Amino acid sequence: MKLSLNWLKDFVDVNISADELAEKLTNSGFEVEEIINPSKGMETVFVGKIVKITKHPNAERLSVCDIDMGDRHLQILTAATNVFEGAYVPVATDGSLLPCGTTIKTTNMRGLESQGMLCSGYELCIDNKVYEGAEVDGIMILKDVEIGENIASVLGLDDIVLDITILANRPDCNSVYGLAREISTMLNLPLKKLDLDYDLKEEKVDFDIKVNTPNCLRYMGAVVKDVELTDSPKWMQARLKAVGINPINNIVDITNYVLMEIGQPMHAFDFDKVDNIIVRQADNEKLVALNEVEYQLNQNDMVIADSTKPLAIAGVMGGMEASVSDGTKNVLFESASFSRASIRTTSKKLSLRSDSSARYERGVEPTLNEIGLNRALHLISSLKIGKIVSIKDRLNCEIKENILTVDYNKINALLGTNISKDKIQKILNSLNITTTINGDNLICNIPNYRTDIECLADIAEEVIRICGLEEIQVKQPTVSLSCKEYDAVKKIRETLVQSGLFEIKTFSLGDGLSYQRLKCEKDNIIEISNPLNDNLKALRTNLIDDMLQTISFNLNHGNKGLRLFEVGRKYMLAKGEPKELDTLCVALTGKVDFFELKKLLFKMINLLNVNIKLDSNISFPYNKFCAGNICLNDEKIGTIGNIHPLVSKNYGINEDVYVLELELDKILLSTQKLYQYQPISKYPAVIRDLNFLVPNGLSYEDIYSEIVHSSGKNCKEVTLVDIYAGNQIEEGYKSLSFRLKFEKDDATLTDEEVEQAVARLLRTLEYKLKVYLRR
Amino acid sequence: MEKRINDVVENALDLIGQAKTTKEIEQIRVKYLGKSGEITAFNKMMKDLPNEEKPKMGQLVNSAKERVESALKAQGEILFNQELEAELEKKGVDITLPVDINLGALHPLTKMEDDLKDFFASRGYIVYDGPEVDLYENNFDKLNIPADHPARDVQDTFYIDDKYLLRSHTSNLQVRMMESTKPPFKMVGTGRTYRGDDIDATHSPVFEQMEVLVVDKGVTMADLKTTIRDLAKHLYGENVEIRLRPSFFPFTEPSVEADVTCIKCKGKGCSICKGTGWMEILGGGMVNPKVFDACGIDSKEYTGFALGAGIERLAMSKYNLNDVRTLYENDVRFLKQFK
Description:
- The complex is a heterodimer.
- Chain A is α+β, with helices and mostly antiparallel strands.
- Chain A folds into 6 domains: about 1-35 and about 160-185, Phenylalanyl-tRNA Synthetase, Chain B, domain 1 (2-Layer Sandwich), CATH 3.30.56; about 45-155, CATH 2.40.50.140; about 210-395, Phenylalanyl-trna Synthetase, Chain B, domain 3 (Phenylalanyl-tRNA Synthetase, Chain B, domain 3), CATH 3.50.40.10; about 405-445 and about 455-470, Phenylalanyl-tRNA Synthetase, Chain B, domain 1; about 485-670, 2-Layer Sandwich (BirA Bifunctional Protein, domain 2), CATH 3.30.930.10; about 685-775, Alpha-Beta Plaits (2-Layer Sandwich), CATH 3.30.70.380.
- Chain B folds into 2 domains: about 1-90; about 110-340, 2-Layer Sandwich (BirA Bifunctional Protein, domain 2).
- Chain B is about 40% helix and about 20% strand.
- Chain B has 12 helices and 9 strands.
- The longest helix of chain B has about 40 residues, at about 55-90.
- At the A-B interface, α7, α10, α12, α13 and β25 of A face α5, β1, α8, β6 and β7 of B.
């Protein structure tokens, strides 16, 4: 909302600077985003009259002008060719810092002094819209001005405008008068009365207003006859321009003026093109609006119609046919109130927004209709634009009194303050909330325009807003403990960072086609019904796709040996309901192998009290010969391995990528690791190294678990010491060397006991796995 | 005899004095004191001497031996130390050579989130988490955002179907916390949120927020203000100035927005703070009784406050970033700056 300070002064004699006012407004909930001062730089630019022009004796292209400034004469040199004796021109005097950035000083030009500068529109940073003729090639020639007048007032720019954010709960402040009401309370200054008087010369006019829809809360119409359509007065034009509205003619300007001043949207119809007014829902009909676009309207849209045709899209935009135009003689003014939801639906459906619809969407309460209409009629009267002959009013709702009874102790309890009830009463009264005291209770009569005040908390807000938030005293800070899952994620992230990995964050929205790039089956994707575009239409079902995209991006930017991870969510439909899984994705490129990634996995898992296993029943996006599933209690919770080259190719990656993806939900909830001391045996251990010849189809895990299982209770440790495949080994086999440590807690082991255990182990391995000792 | 012994000793001491290495010292020891060494030879001659001369000779030989031994020891020690020094020098390193500590880094948004969560967790808040795909009512209705509110427009919120949407703020955590937990409680949560904004320097359809909710008997606006003050000082330092402005959110009443002195210009006014000298950091307020009622908490018995902040905005101001897209691009050259 743009607030002109000149306009504001109609209602409040503001006695502080624009900067101070802006700060006060911001501190009481009306944030001032910008202070617009269009006359900045024009303080020392005045109207001067060229009395005489002579040629510069030493410079052919320069003219020497004798300028009458009223109180003195200046000699100014100019190269412009459009100047003439008797012309009124803007004169920048010595020391001016013009809007265009130029500083003006008295200078010597080829032997003659120039005591200032004649300005063009360019130097004043204005165009034809501000002043007709501003864009002329040369000096601006001014009309109807007086010598010595400040140029800003000539141009109608001697105003300061505040750009204020009006919060959604305060539609009543979306106008000059509404803000004036706030400011008068804020500065403790009287609010001047709105002039609403007008001359009514009642005549019998043959027309009626019917309201046939509950979406119209009130409709007022006034007929003005013998209207003379002209430009509106200069002051009105200047104010409209200052707040960004282009003047059109006196009738349209009045509707806009009232909109900005009172917050009541107004509409003017050409009364000779209207027989009656019927407010109703549309019935599959078409209307060409003022923007010359034809709209198809149906049952959900409200229209203003007469007995034969729709005239306007209610609250949104008028129609072309009955609009005020050059031939208009008689005018019907509309001042109405419509349901917020109805206007919003139509405005959204038609993608058509106007100053009116914006206000109706935020709420225009029915008592404002009368004030708005009266104000418009007052302007008609005082500007002598026409004859007011008839006013009609259809109220289609109940205007209720809003009385709240609140305990002042509860206001203080909510705010953490200790404000006396008398002070609260005073504050509320200053806001036109008429308040009486009854014991601890305050009985508050809320004015109609304060639609936002419904309960004690709302009253409390008013009190603290006016009192100032500095009234609230701060307390001592408090301290205590923390949270488990969050701690676990933090530990995992820290481990990865310590291992040289960088965390990334990628969008959780994508094109929903990652399964194609990853050569996987399509998942149960959650899609957005109203996406911004096709690239952001589905929630991701894995983190690998984003990871590979990030890797590709970095490789393309010359970053090599990437070590990245992301902790994020993946999303899917499970039995039709959305499911979200906190997931970790890790990726390595460069001089790395599978086991480096596996090492990272176990480093992380070691932080938690869980046991995981890998199985190799896996396929795309992985290379199945170098990848596997991560399982917790036989349940798959992740994948790890080398990405299949064909998949990498889809991302434009031409090197090995190792990736792991791990669902965190289950492992994060694991209990803390428990450490229990085991006594160390006092008796010597016996070590046996065994080399096995193992067919390639068997995994280390297969043999290891069988050894652990079958080597007897005295075998306390089994470690792989060597792995060999090559010359001395038969094709299709590998050699695995295990070191077994035998030990008893209560006695020295005999050789015999160890030999027996080993023999039993060898027999089992031969029988179960066809694995033999290597000779 | 005596003279011969003296000559041998003098020769030995001469040699020892000229020795350059511990190896030479060892050779001299063998030459004089070894099994067939020159001084050892005098011992052997002793048995041919008359008995009365033996003690005197014995003394002479012993003292000769001691003199040579102590000279060997002294010179040997000097040479050993020299050699050790030379050896160490040879093995010496250029201590100014660089080392690779092989550290990665957390993403700046994570750093910011952790910072916020740690602040609250250390003050007894539960770190709470909730779904991003949530029911309409948890994102809107129960937060006093009725069906005709502009925030529910299709251009602002992503809808999945007629039941679910992508949360447009983390305030759904408030609803879930209140519905699942009996007060009193203190909660902090961060997470992804979604809005229909096209991507540019300051907007992103995917972004992160922090949510804080405290519900108890007798919670007042002073608790809210205290929390804001403590948080602002934690984030921006003890000397930061804080300003509260009245504001409006459907789910809090009264509502405030909090500004701190711009970290770039320290309040003088610059491009970051649009010349105001202030930087907005968060919004909050006292929980609207209508929200309590909708979430099954007795609004006559309990009061509470809520806070919300955009993580990107906080991170961008803290790390001097001017384009939100940088945060989601994940260029390693960018990530490395947060080691």
